[in-house]
Amino acid sequence: MPTIAIVGAGPGLGLSIAKVFGAHGFDIALISRNKDKLDALAAELDTAGITAAGFPADAADPGQLTSALEAAITRFGQIDVLEFSPHASLSFTSPEEVTIDNLRPGIDNLLYGAVTAVQAVLPGMLQAGTGTLLFTTGGGAINPYPMLATINIAQAGQRNYALNLHNTLADKGIYAANVAINLMIGAEAPEGIPHRAPDEIAADYWSLYTSRTQAEHFIGA
Predict the structure, then answer these.
(1) Domain encompassing residue 172
(2) Rounded CA gap, 184 and 203, in Å?
(3) Which residues contact 18 (CB under 8 A, 6 or more apart)?
(4) What is the pLDDT along the chain (221 residues), one digit of tens a residue?
(5) What is the CATH number of the domain that holds 10?
(6) How many domains, in total, are found in the chain?
(7) What is the reported pTM?
């Protein structure tokens, strides 16, 4: 069975991605900070006939994240797809208010976390000659929002990394892409707020995985 590791797995988009890949025969490695929540997600997937297991780790902690992915590789044999979308805590900070201290949490979580995750799974993909790396950012990684300066900077770095991987790994059988989501994720939203259900967005990830062509996919209103 192929395996997808979802870093930042939660009850919204992460669970939807797990379901769509699981429905196509994937085993699921779920990674986030809270073990109880991971166990609940794995149990829900099990009721749908999908094999899943949780591996607790904070994406901002390189040691924890590496250990979790290594445990997932030991459990499932290999990671065929990495989906990286840890929770980005909203910090309303204008560009002129950015400091080293308030920028560091986003960089640790989103950029350094992405690099750590790739370093854990890429050697196995290169050895196999195939693999997929999917990264998720907000739309501010492309067109920044002034009130989200710190998150924009971290996600822009993550996006740049993903696009560079796309350009350099294709001839080695590895597909990498960035998904920029510029709307609210949810089946419902306040009037006038663009939104899209997580199950619908998850279908786009499957399309990217199967087509293996786009370096970036933008989801917006």
Answers:
(1) 3-219
(2) 16
(3) 4, 6, 9, 28, 30, 41, 45, 50, 52
(4) 999 999 999 999 999 999 999 999 999 999 999 999 999 999 999 999 999 999 999 999 999 999 999 999 999 999 999 999 998 777 789 999 999 999 999 999 999 999 999 999 999 999 999 999 999 999 999 999 999 999 999 999 999 999 999 999 999 999 999 999 998 888 777 877 878 899 999 999 999 999 999 999 999 87
(5) 3.40.50.720
(6) 1
(7) 0.96
